[in-house]
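FIELD: query
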Amino acid sequence: MNKTDIKSLDLQELTEYLESIGEKPFRAKQIYDWIHVKLVSDYDEMSNLSKTLREKLKDETELINLGVIEERISAVDGTRKYLFGLSDGNIIESVLMKYKHGNSVCISSQVGCRMGCRFCASTLDGLERNLKPSEMLDQIYRIQKITGERVSNVVVMGSGEPLDNYDNLLRFIRLLTDDNGLHISQRNITVSTCGLVPKIRALAGENLQITLALSLHAPNDQVRRELMPIARTYELKDVLEACQEYFEKTGRRLTFEYSLVKGVNDNLQEARALADLLKGHQGHVNLIPVNPIKERDYVQSDKKAIQSFKEYLERKGINVTVRREMGRDISGACGQLRRGFLSSEMKESEGKV
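FIELD: result
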């Protein structure tokens, strides 16, 4: 019997479900509050429900809760990285970053990734499966419960390509921003994409106020194809046209993510091409000193090159920032901690054979 994933239901759907099993509609608001506001992990904690209803819910529904496998806290900046275990044995990771303006959580949207970006550890083992809305939500819920601190900003930029899990992503966003739940502002949610053109265009029509971040990483198709296999499918011209459509329909300026890789995309020739490429586009460039991973030979640009790149863009009127490196001492980059954990488990199992 397939159990109902109760944490992925909105309030209306939960009301309809309870009515279908002979319960009063008002119970839906009580249960929704327990799950999405009080963040309980067990039906027995729902003290205003009858024992009969709690037992019925245990039998017929699934209340998704992630297990904490590992927590690492940076000695440098207090960033916390979590490995969470899913009910099917898969592993995902999330990061809590603390800023003056509030706590930001970066979540995963898939187990692994199939996009193949050359500088990212998330994609090394390919895509295992999509995450459910409940599994995306519970990364935030667990972190908020563990720390006792409110999460005010959410970035869907961990393992996975969010727009490759489009329907579940939309449901996640609507649940997260629902007035009856945590009610995080849509303007405080950023979704990253490597450039799935049809999905960017679809997202533009969803009447959302989230920030879209494009993983750009190169100023032309030739370099981009070297770094990102998706560039063989969608040319930059088409990607940027879709981004412009997103801006026109939502009024939300885009973020253009640009990972600086030494000797690949970090010289002033690339900076000049990037400035020309983005001329007239509404958004800002976020320069990211790439986090090296041992499976690739890419190296982070030196500080002088990063500063020169930034200053050139500024002279050309481009709004640009350099992302603060956070959690470097705890495998802070996407997929690094999960990859390390899976590798150590594999070595252990091989040693037992």
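FIELD: remark
The chain has a mean pLDDT of 91.
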